[in-house]
Structure formats: C-alpha cells, structure tokens
C-alpha cells in the first residue's frame, strides 16, 4: 500500500466559489510524490484559507485513502511445489477427427461402387464439402448428416449418371480442394462416359501443378488437357466411354521434409 506523507503540500491558489471542504481528489503528479511523481491512490484534502491582496491562498493537508491497486502483500501466496501422482491406468473412448484425404477417397470409392455405402466420421472441411457437391453434380444420390458426421452414398456402378442425363459440358468447381481435384480428374476419365467435363477452382487452385497426372492419363489413352497451358487447372476431359489403358512413364520425385 502506498505510504502517504503527513507533510504539508505546497500552497495552491484557487477560485473558491464552488469549493467545499474537505474533498477527496485524485491528485496530480505534483501533489503526490513518488518515483514518477504518481501513484494509484486518492487523498482527502482539507483547505485552510488565508487572504491577501492577490486573492485567497489555500494551504492543503492530506490523509491517505485506501489504494485502488492490490499490492504483493495482499495477493495469496503460490504453493511452493505441485506434486503430480503417476498414472497407473487409463480407460475411456477417444474419437479422433477424420482425415480429409481419407474422407474424400472413401466418398469417391463409394460413388464408383455398387449399392449403398454409409461413411462415418467424415471430417467437416472445405475439401470434403467440395467432394460431396461434385458427386451430386455427377448425378449421384448423396445424403449427409453433419450432426453425426455421416454421409450415405448410392453407388453408380462405375458410370456417373450425369453422363447420360446431359449433353452439355459438366462443370465441377472444387475450390482449393486438391484432395478432390486430382482423384476426380482420373475418375471422370474412367467413369464419365462420353460426356465433357471441366474441373476448375479458385485462383489459388490454378497455381497448383497437375501436369504429371494429366500426362499419365494421356498415356493411358485419355483425352484430357490443362487447356490454359500452365500444367495447372482448369482441366478439360472429353470422355471416351472409359480408359483404354496402356503403359505409363512418369518422372520420379523425392521430397524430404525438414527434421
């Protein structure tokens, strides 16, 4: 707590019209000495008037008022040590969040298969939402329950229904979902019938290379290209009723992460 001085404060010159005494004031730095001329406390000031030919002079004395900020003496003391007892047994259930990569691969496999597939513990992410939207655009029946992170997919049996329902170019917008763009590019080549497709995304997606995949699909007989000439999306696919097949020669890349 701040120590208050009982010494007389300097004489102050006031206009005493609306002055009542004693008053409680928050002092200016000149009234309350300290290391910086200031502390967080108030003083009760009593004014004694003396008059001269220049007006009234008030001599102020003060008494301390309780500090507004807690000091170290007022705070509870921290324990000297905290003892953690060893754990001998743990039991319970931990539900881990799903993987966007695994979620999208399972959804696509469910779409290509026959029958109904129920996928549980889907990750709630942009990549997964773009994949679900693309499957619906391809004509698949998809029911989603976000409250329990579950999706039910009616399989197409290897041929996307939209290929027989429209002669227009089918647009698949995939945002920045790389885990949807790459697998779907190969999937519409193999299961897209004779329809035409364009797979595109946000500007950032148009900076993400996909040329190696496109090159591999071309060697298998697909009519596919990055039509902007950047080896990045958008990708155009002209369906041929399937993928003829063949040998593929690709460049091998090795990537080492930082330790």
TrEMBL record:
Biological processes per GO annotation: chorismate biosynthetic process
Name of the featured protein: Enolpyruvate transferase domain-containing protein
Pfam annotation, one family: EPSP_synthase
The Enolpyruvate transferase domain, residue ranges: 85-250
Gene3D superfamilies the record matches: Enolpyruvate transferase domain
Keyword annotations of the record: Transferase
Lineage, opening ranks: Eukaryota, Viridiplantae, Streptophyta, Embryophyta, Tracheophyta
GO molecular function list: 3-phosphoshikimate 1-carboxyvinyltransferase activity
SUPFAM superfamilies the UniProt entry points to: EPT/RTPC-like
InterPro entries: Enolpyruvate_Tfrase_dom, Enolpyruvate_Tfrase_sf, EPSP_synthase_CS, RNA3'P_cycl/enolpyr_Trfase_a/b
């Amino acid at each position: 707590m701040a120590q208050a001085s009982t010494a007389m404060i300097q004489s102050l010159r006031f206009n005493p019209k609306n002055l009542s005494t004693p008053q409680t004031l928050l002092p200016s730095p000149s009234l309350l000495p300290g290391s910086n001329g200031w502390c967080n406390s108030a003083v009760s000031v009593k004014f004694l008037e003396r008059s001269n030919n220049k007006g009234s002079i008030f001599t102020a004395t003060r008494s301390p008022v309780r500090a507004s900020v807690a000091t170290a003496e007022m705070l509870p003391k921290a324990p000297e040590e905290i003892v953690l007892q060893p754990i001998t047994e743990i039991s319970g259930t931990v539900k881990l969040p799903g993987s966007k990569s695994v979620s999208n691969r399972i959804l696509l496999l469910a779409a290509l298969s026959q029958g109904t597939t129920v996928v549980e513990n889907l990750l709630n992410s942009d990549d997964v939402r773009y994949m679900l939207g693309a499957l619906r655009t391809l004509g698949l029946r998809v029911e989603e329950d976000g409250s329990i992170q579950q999706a039910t997919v009616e399989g197409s049996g290897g041929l996307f229904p939209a290929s027989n329902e429209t002669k227009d170019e089918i647009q698949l917008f995939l945002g920045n979902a790389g885990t949807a763009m790459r697998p779907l590019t190969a999937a519409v080549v193999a299961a897209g019938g004779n329809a035409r497709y364009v797979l595109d995304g946000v500007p950032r997606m148009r900076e993400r290379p996909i040329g190696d995949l496109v090159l591999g699909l071309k060697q298998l007989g697909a009519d596919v290209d990055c039509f902007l000439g950047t080896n990045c999306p958008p990708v155009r696919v002209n369906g041929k009723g399937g993928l003829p097949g063949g040998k593929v020669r690709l460049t091998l890349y090795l990537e080492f992460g930082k330790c």
